[in-house]
Automatic annotation (TrEMBL), chains A, B:
Family stated for the protein in its record: Belongs to the CinA family.
Organism encoding this protein: Chryseobacterium shigense
Family matches, as InterPro entries: CinA, CinA-like_C, CinA_C, CinA_KH, Competence-induced_CinA, MoaB/Mog-like_dom_sf, MoaB/Mog_dom
Stretches assigned to the MoaB/Mog domain: 5-173
Name the UniProt record assigns to this protein: CinA-like protein
Pfam (any one): CinA
CDD domains: cinA
Length: 416, 416
């Protein structure tokens, strides 16, 4: 049990209507128990295609997980394809039907339709994992010691099924390889120069260790993955390599533990007992959202404000009208006054501000799309910077800028 | 030129480190010119796998688009696989090298490394589309009249390449089918009952029309897709079917034009000249971000506040301390006072508020994870609702709640 293949079924993703987030979640959960996803097929809901893909998947992997194609509506053909592929028949499963009835009754639905009843029909050879957050059950089939789990496609049904039922099942049933991952976050060095800098080290890595470059905004995450049988030997081996790597990139390292920049920030703020607040214009709430997406953020995030209209910047954050008139609202000066006003209003150690033009149209004052000024105030020190990102669309712009600010803040805090 | 196959190359997605957003963007852009993505392969960066997948892809589609695997670092083998698959060799392309040099010089980099120079090596039979936002060029290869484009994997390099170069190229080169899509957004009716309600209509649809159910939170989007040669005949045909559908689901329809709920809201607010503001606790900025993600939102979105700490709710939004003490901060009463305070502070027609427990830990006052109260104030009318979503993780919770509030607001505005 080493290699998994995911099959995402349904037209929502192929048509561009939905972003596939299930694969990401499943790949991460499997990686944590030492199972590597080696391929993902995203296919349409057609019996022939599903059967062909199951065949291809069983050739590559030991574990198949399909998501999607199990809803109560007409366009779902996955169950039929499963039964045909495994030479099985579909029949009503009483346990599943009772579970379904209870599920619907708890939600005040006593009108079990024929269509719902159909959801309790499963291939007779399948082992059912009941779905506690939806009406389509998860079915497990076996072939030559390889397993195939079929799940519905709704992310909040997929997550508990994987996390609470399938992962524990796999852990118990198989003797799994151990995987150990370390991530080193590096800033201020282009990927190609970084690669040159650490080339000798990388080439000398033991065979069971591999390195990946993962660029996130202007940061590069170096991910070192080690696999093997012996957990503690593996940890030591990876740790030894990290200790050799660090001197090569020392000035550029901003973190050697956590992965997401907002989590790195969380650790620093909690350790130093610092509070933070935000005043956002062009990022529209994304910066605050990013900070508050970390559990426990209420310990350091006090408040945020999004004074979108210029008059609110003046009224509430006390940005001076003269500054706006002289330099326009998208300016270094306004960013700075916003950060000061924010720090004063919310009484925090740190305040962050953004003012810019997310596009697609030019700013009121003719500022170019993609321009943003942002200030970082730490106590009575302040740094104001400019970014110009004309190639990003609106949402990517909001996200990139927010990432960059948190990254800059982490850099400033580390070097204080 | 009808069917496209996407190949996503690289371990970032398979390892769960990155969510694949490129496929979504490309599928949408292609759909707009009548090209349907029929399959997506997500594979690792190995020469054998890449070549096998190219073979499989050419069997299914007329157009192949690969992303990823073209960075300047060691783990990229895509170009080699391309050359082998097409029986070609890799050689330095002078035009591409000059473009690369200019690109780097404009960014103040005069130290062209060997590694960068390698990026100007392309298969000799390829047509190069220059990348204006990165160092890896896009290469087009041809086989039996079928096309294969290879792009880098960075989303902000992919988007302009697809939008500004590849889509215009395909439009000009091929006589493309016409695709017409209509979306009807339906709320307040479970998917299975909806399916029963419109079953006869759906079964009677002409063959060139197809229907999909796309659940988004508690809303279901019905997407009707028509394809054919004659643009105006197609529009009329789809329109006729929509007119037959609407009476069947009339009370549940919240929109028949735009797709995203925040765009539907934007249209209504601009049409009626209404302004809006937000006061968020548990959604942490996500609600404001969702509203401001629509271009032109500064016309109606005045400001938002995220009074995360309870004392800020009291201080700035004038929530009464007695209310907090009596009902706890996660309560109907506090949600209501937040909305009132927000409307007063920012002087808007509409205000929205949220207070809840995003988890994973319980709220300060013992409130259950997944509980949220939210208020919608429209002038002097107010509706406060409760949601209980214990199965969602933190980010999904913030997103789901924000979606639901905007959806409720749209419903209230439509029925006013």
């Amino acid at each position: 049990m080493e290699k998994a293949v995911l099959i995402t079924i349904g037209d929502e993703i192929l048509s561009g209507n939905t972003v596939d987030t299930n694969s990401n979640f499943i790949a991460t959960e499997l990686k944590n128990i030492g199972i590597q996803v080696t391929q993902i097929f995203t296919i349409s809901d057609e019996i022939g295609t599903i059967k062909n893909t199951l065949k291809a998947a069983f050739e590559i992997g030991d574990l198949i997980i399909t998501t999607g194609g199990l809803g109560p509506t007409r366009d779902d053909k996955t169950k039929k394809a499963l039964a045909e592929y495994f030479n099985d028949e579909i029949a009503l499963d009483e346990v599943t039907f009772n579970h379904l009835k209870n599920y619907m009754e708890r939600r005040g639905r006593t009108d079990i339709l024929e269509r719902n009843r159909e959801q309790a029909f499963v291939p007779t050879k399948s082992v059912v994992f009941q779905n506690h957050f939806g009406t389509a059950p998860c079915m497990m089939m076996e072939q030559d010691g390889k397993l195939c789990f079929s799940l519905p496609g709704v992310p909040y049904e997929v997550k508990p099924l994987i996390r609470d039922q399938i992962v524990p099942y796999l852990k118990e049933k198989f003797n799994l390889y151990y995987i150990y991952t370390r991530i080193v976050s590096v800033v201020g060095i282009p990927e190609s120069i970084l690669a040159d800098t650490i080339e000798d080290w990388e080439l000398a890595l033991p065979e069971n260790l591999s390195l990946s470059y993962l660029p996130v905004g202007t940061r590069v995450k170096l991910r070192l993955t080690a696999s093997g049988d012996d957990e503690s030997a593996l940890k030591k081996q990876a740790e030894d390599e990290i200790q050799k790597l660090l001197p090569l990139v020392k000035d550029h390292v901003i973190a050697v533990t956590e992965d997401k920049i907002e989590k790195i920030l969380a650790e620093i703020l909690m350790e130093r007992n610092l509070t933070i607040s935000t005043a956002e214009s062009c990022t529209g709430g994304e910066l605050a959202k990013m900070i508050t997406s970390t559990a426990g953020s209420s310990k350091y995030f006090i408040a945020g404000i999004i004074p979108y209209a210029t008059e609110k910047k003046i009224e509430i954050l006390k940005v001076s009208k003269e500054t706006v008139d002289e330099f326009t609202v998208v300016s270094e000066q306004v960013a700075s006054e916003m950060a000061k006003g924010c720090q004063r209003l919310f009484d925090t150690d740190i305040s962050l501000s953004t003012t810019g033009v997310a596009g697609p149209g030019k700013g009121e004052d003719g500022n170019e799309v993609g321009t943003v000024f942002y200030s970082i105030r730490i106590k009575d020190q302040e740094v104001t910077s400019k970014l110009y990102m004309p190639h990003l669309d609106r949402l990517d712009f909001m996200n990139f800028v927010s990432q960059k600010i948190i990254q800059d803040l982490v850099g400033l805090l580390i070097n204080r």
